[in-house]
Write a structure and sequence with these properties.
Layout lengths: L3 E3 L7 E4 L11 E12 L3 E12 L11 E10 L4 E9 L6 E10 L4 E2 L29 E16 L4 E15 L3 H5 L14 H7 L10 E14 L10 E11 L10 E13 L5 E15 L40 E18 L2 E7 L2 E9 L5 H10 L12 H5 L2 E12 L3 E10 L10 E6 L4
Antiparallel strand pairs: 1-3, 2-3, 3-4, 4-5, 5-6, 6-7, 7-9, 8-9, 9-10, 10-11, 11-12, 12-13, 13-14, 14-15, 15-16, 15-17, 16-18, 17-18, 18-19, 19-20
Length: 449
């Protein structure tokens, strides 16, 4: 059965200008609205909308806005979705940039392929219901609901160097896939079988402890510095963005073993090829665990100084390695790199609104730097007690752990007034171990970086 029947079959941009604009310089308020409709055999019919509202004041800072208010809500008939409110303001606190975010992300079918990238063997036919060795479409899934609140502030040190600080709370609710919910209304031949999924087997084999199989509440604080010489933030054609910061995540009660300290460093550069309409953009970054321990479901979380999008997965998926299955690489530390060529194809105006269409061929790569400890002998013995062959699930050679995961593809961008950018990216993994599909399609807002 096809897993994805249809995705993003409706995209409609509506713009309303609420103040007088002169030429292409925006003043006052503008906003865009995007409804979308999709259907997934496991998650059901998706319905929702998003809007991004911008305030440019007298236009003197354009294309940079003074306020951005982002609201998104979507829901599926199988009770998954996204509910998010984000405020990004350069003038609410004079002299500082303030970002506030409240998000709830229920996910009945979150991806889980095991630890340490290629050390975890990915058998795509096990969740392909047309294959002879099919097990379940939910075999590489578990339930992960995340509620997040965050407040971040930025202040100036010099014209190009800023200090950054923030705090927030991550609340995870973790469990095995709710088969009763997903099977509701399905015919008998389409129902998911009640078998042990990989998440269950990792618990049975001692790779996921009893203390991390149900989630928890994790307050965090972070602090660092950024260097920013970009000519604009939404789609820069020149300049550098670099940051380095520490994140301390706290845990209490029976979860106190999961206190941790992590280091992140990122570098981005934008190089115009003779014209701002042709730009090479690249990003390199890394996340390290310096101290403490982290539950497996938080190893999927990529720390960031400021929340620009809803989901920040570690390695794999739309926010890191496009084309690679979401959360394919779960480890204590990782590195990633993205490079793309951004080409503006056409610029045009409709009324007082400025639009452009662009494309961006790209290549993404990432790898494990700090693997999760896996006791080979213990896992072999534990797998045997459940009637499994460990070699069906693991590649125990070290070369499997540190081999890079790579993908590539091309994107199409539809932009209004420089900041409101609808992004459609098509990508494919270069190794079949990284996805059960030959290609993946992502529809989101803004450039990846």
């Amino acid at each position: 059965m096809k897993k994805l029947v249809s995705a993003s079959i409706l995209s409609l941009a509506i713009s309303v200008q609420m103040a007088v604009a002169q030429s292409n310089v925006k003043t006052g308020w503008t906003f865009g609205v995007l409804p979308s409709v999709a259907y997934d055999a496991d998650l059901g019919f998706q319905y929702g909308a998003l809007t991004n509202i911008y305030f440019y004041g007298d236009g003197s800072t354009y294309p940079e806005y003074l306020h951005s208010i982002y609201v998104e809500a979507n829901r599926t008939t199988k009770k998954s979705g996204l509910f998010r409110l984000n405020l990004d303001s350069r003038s609410l606190l004079p002299g500082y940039r303030l970002s506030l975010d409240v998000s709830f992300m229920p996910d009945e079918m979150s991806d889980f392929a095991g630890f340490n990238g290629y050390q975890a063997v990915y058998n795509s036919t096990w969740h392909d219901d047309g294959a002879s060795d099919y097990r379940s479409r939910a075999f590489y899934k578990y339930r992960r609901n995340l509620f997040r609140t965050a407040a971040d502030i930025q202040g100036r040190i010099t014209d190009r160097i800023n200090w950054n600080a923030g705090l927030g709370v991550l609340s995870f609710d973790i469990d095995r896939v709710n088969l009763n919910k997903l099977n509701r209304g399905q015919s008998d031949d389409k129902k998911l079988p009640d078998i042990d999924c990989l998440y269950d087997k990792y618990q049975q084999w001692g790779l996921i402890s009893d203390n991390e199989n149900s989630g928890g509440l994790f307050p965090y604080i972070h602090a660092g510095a950024t260097f920013d010489s970009r000519n604009q933030s939404a789609a820069p054609s020149s300049g550098i963005w670099a940051d380095a910061f520490l994140t301390y995540t706290a845990a209490f009660g029976n979860k106190k073993e999961f206190n941790s300290l992590k280091l992140n460093a990122n570098f981005r550069q934008y190089i115009a090829l003779g014209t701002p309409s042709a730009v090479v953009a690249y990003r390199i970054g890394a996340q390290f665990t310096l101290a403490g321990s982290t539950p497996f479901y938080m190893l999927c979380y990529h720390n960031t100084l400021t929340l620009k999008r809803a989901a920040y997965e570690s390695l794999g998926g739309s926010s890191s390695l496009r084309g690679v299955m979401r959360n394919r690489v779960i480890s204590h530390g990782f590195a990633l790199a993205n490079i793309e060529l951004r080409l503006r194809i056409v610029n045009f105006n409709v009324g007082n609104q400025h639009f452009y269409i662009a494309t961006n061929p790209f290549v993404d790569a990432g790898m494990v730097l700090q693997p999760v400890s896996v006791d080979v002998q213990q896992v072999r013995l534990a797998a045997a007690t459940t009637g499994d062959n460990a070699d069906d699930y693991f590649n125990f050679s070290k070369s499997g752990v540190y081999r890079p995961h790579t993908s590539g593809g091309v994107g199409l961008k539809f932009a209004m007034n420089e900041n409101f950018i609808l992004s459609v990216d098509w990508a494919t993994p270069f190794n079949s171990q990284d996805s059960g599909k030959k290609s993946n399609l992502y529809v989101k807002m803004g450039y990846l970086f």
